[in-house]
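Worked example

This section walks through a single chain of length 413. The input is the sequence exactly as stored; nothing has been trimmed or padded.
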Amino acid sequence: MLKSLFGDLGMEQASERFADTIAPEFAATAVLESVAQELNDRGQIVDRHLTELFVSGSASQAMREHYAAARAELDSRMRVITLYDPSRMWAGGVVRALSDAGGQPIERLHLRDEGSLVSLAMIERTTLHRRFEDTLKVYHADVRADRVDAELIPFALMERSQLTGVVVGPLSSASVDVMLKRLVEATQAPTWHCPAIVFMLPVGATAIANRIAALPWPAQLQVQTINEPLTSAPAVWNALLDQWGRMVVAAEAQRASAAAAAAAAAKPAPALPAATPRAPAPGAPKLRRVPDATRAAATLDELVRLEGMLGCALVDLASGSPVAVAGTTIDMELAAAGATEIMRTHRRTLAPMGQRGAPEVVDEICATANGRYHVIRSVAADPELFLLAVLDRQRATLAMVRLRLLNAQAHLG
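Given that input, the structure is written out below as tokens.
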């Protein structure tokens, strides 16, 4: 099993030549060697991962038609994420990093004007295989021509994506206004089907966030803003992937709720005798859903296999005791008690920390001490439960563990 910063990679991604020699727990980052260049019958070097598309007329419409044909060939389990990066800061680096980490090639589509052969844009995409989740196709458009029809090419990619990540880099205020205006116009077009846009803003970009919130976005479109330090391609991708995970969890919860409502509507309600409602007794404990022990044990067994994982637990916030534990190298009961105090303290201090009006649930806490990482992740389905992972800093990949914890809390729901 190959493991990398961007998640587990299936054995099918490893070279067949080494399949018999790779141990089941081999940990490494796959290095993609360039094998795309070949020679044609005239001895010229060609790239089998590069396609030329000659455009006559509207470049965005040509991209839209080509993209529709390409989407028809995708597996139904694949999901598409489009990166829009007007300042050209991170999107290209994210695609290259994903390609290197997953051992997948970068497929390029070069759009040229049919008459002048001028380069209009280079479309890049790569594939990210995930063992427990849907495969992701990540797109990025590098617009090279200063023409209106070329500048609309990225919007043709966004239209049928499941998620669009907009990286707001060092742009002037006027450039930000133009970008937002074009985005709003694109989302109101009949061809727009993307359900969610995530704006990735620099830390402290409150004015831009306020401008985004004030725009007339379509009612069915989810628009979110996140303010995190964008210091590297993995940081940009992990922030976007975290939002993708939240969107998937919310969609699953919405589907489950709709299915339950439909089942309840189809089933006739039994007649009940009239009863006088009684108020609950003072101090009576609230009824809580008991977590499924089998599912919790299976989830922790998957987590404890991660490289560098010293121990993990599902903890009850009310009592501070573990509901389920995996890993025997450390005292998880003692670690759970300490993590409970940390979680309670953060909940109490959200408002003094400036999170006015924020919910009391803390999504994630990460602490570093004595060569270890301590990562605490709330369970969305039950705010009174949280996952605790204790890691060896020298061997663990923090970004991968955070992603797996995010997926684990969704499975527990």
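What to look for: Residues 1-36, 283-287 have pLDDT under 50 and may be disordered.
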